[in-house]
């Protein structure tokens, strides 16, 4: 006699083929989004946005395939500098990371293409001419031939930029409230810089110098003529020699002032070899020439190591090597 087995209650339950419900992650609040955006400087954001626009204008898309990115890099290898292409690749990588997509920059095809471009085109960076003390003093002669207000501003801008070894972005960010006067000079507060994105801040001391080439006196003269009592120290001046508003100069304006001053001194060809960075490079070069130690130079420039300083110090050291003949 066969006995029938009744199925258990457990076996009668239907088997679900559906995956467990996963709750979707809530979108970040506006407060979180604002702090997330602040993690990256506005200048960097604009730079990356410009890179992505260029990529899209030349056949690219986000998300992109590895082949698409490799073709883009290869097509501009003979036109754009290797450093520029690397910056574009970082922008493409960040654009994919921001939307949670795999980055084509990590693909072997893209990596090999970049390696090939480096080997073929080379990776030497453009070096601007450093403006040392003698260059600066000669430039002052030509600057003083301009209209009074513009001459005062340009003189203060160049002398303070050199004496403080400032980046152009640091120079235009200086404010009236950031000055502290002492008997032997002027202390300027840098609220934020390229290597201090979290605004820890640091101070730069500008000592008095002899004669009418003193950066502190030049700055005081400009402030008095311009009637500045608050806000940005360096401001636009119109062709009619009048202050234009109360906004600061742009970093690009510093480069234009440097180029225009060098052009008056040495001609258009010479002006093409300088930039806003020439003042900072000039300070490092001049300091190495007179024998300041790297730690002393870093105190003024804000460099965190000797690696970047070596670009200025090594050429000077090589020129001091005596002949063995």
How helix-rich are the residues, as a percent range? Answer: 40-55%
Largest sheet: 3 strands, antiparallel
* Averaged pLDDT: 85
How many domains, as an integer?
2
Strand arrangement across the biggest beta sheet: 1-2-3
Radius of gyration, whole Å:
29 Å
List keywords for this structure.
mainly alpha; three-stranded antiparallel sheet
Summarize the structure in words:
The protein is mainly α and 325 residues long. The chain folds into two domains: 81 residues, Tyrosine recombinase, N-terminal domain (DNA polymerase, domain 1), CATH 1.10.150; 187 residues, Intergrase catalytic core (hpI Integrase, Chain A), CATH 1.10.443. The protein is 52% helix and 5% strand. It contains 15 helices and three strands. A three-stranded antiparallel sheet has the order 1-2-3. A hairpin with a 2-residue loop joins strand 1 and strand 2. Helix 3 crosses helix 5, helix 7 packs across helix 11 and helix 13 crosses helix 15. The longest helix has 17 residues. The radius of gyration is 29 Å and the shape is globular. It starts with 8 loop residues before the first helix and ends in a 6-residue tail after the last helix. About 5% of the residues have low confidence.
What's the SSE blueprint?
Elements: H1 9-12, H2 30-38, H3 42-57, H4 66-75, H5 82-98, H6 108-121, H7 133-143, H8 148-163, H9 168-173, E1 179-182, E2 185-190, E3 202-207, H10 215-226, H11 251-266, H12 268-271, H13 278-289, H14 294-301, H15 306-319
Antiparallel strand pairs: 1-2, 2-3
Helix pairs in contact: 3-5, 4-6, 7-11, 8-10, 8-13, 13-15
């Amino acid at each position: 006699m066969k006995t029938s087995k009744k199925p258990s209650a457990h076996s009668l339950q239907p088997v679900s083929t559906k995956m467990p419900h996963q709750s979707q992650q809530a979108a970040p609040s506006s407060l979180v989004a604002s702090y997330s955006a602040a993690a990256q400087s506005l200048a960097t954001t604009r730079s990356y946005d410009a890179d992505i626009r260029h990529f899209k204008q030349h056949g690219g898309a986000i998300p992109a395939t590895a082949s698409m990115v490799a073709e883009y890099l290869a097509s501009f290898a003979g036109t754009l500098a290797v450093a520029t292409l690397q910056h574009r690749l970082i922008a493409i990588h960040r654009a994919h990371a921001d939307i949670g997509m795999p980055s084509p920059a990590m693909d072997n095809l893209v990596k090999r293409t970049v390696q090939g471009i480096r080997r073929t085109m080379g990776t030497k960076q453009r070096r601007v001419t450093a403006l040392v003390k003698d260059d600066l003093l000669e430039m002052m002669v030509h600057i003083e031939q301009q209209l009074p207000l513009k001459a005062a501003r340009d003189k203060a801008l160049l002398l303070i930029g050199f004496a403080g070894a400032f980046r152009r972005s640091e120079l235009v960010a200086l404010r009236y409230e950031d000055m502290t006067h002492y008997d032997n000079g002027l202390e300027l507060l840098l609220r934020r810089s390229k290597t201090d994105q979290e605004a820890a801040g640091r101070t730069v001391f500008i000592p008095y110098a002899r004669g009418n080439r003193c950066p502190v006196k030049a700055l005081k003269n400009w402030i008095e003529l311009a009637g500045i009592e608050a806000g940005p120290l360096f401001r636009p001046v119109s062709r009619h020699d009048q202050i234009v508003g109360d906004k600061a100069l742009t970093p690009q304006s510093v480069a234009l002032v440097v180029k225009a001053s060098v052009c008056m001194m040495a001609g258009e060809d010479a002006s093409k070899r300088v930039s806003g960075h020439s003042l900072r490079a000039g300070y490092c070069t001049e300091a190495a020439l007179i024998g300041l130690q790297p730690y002393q130079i870093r105190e003024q420039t804000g460099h965190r190591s000797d690696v970047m300083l070596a670009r200025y110090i090594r050429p000077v050291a090589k020129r001091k090597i005596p002949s063995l003949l």
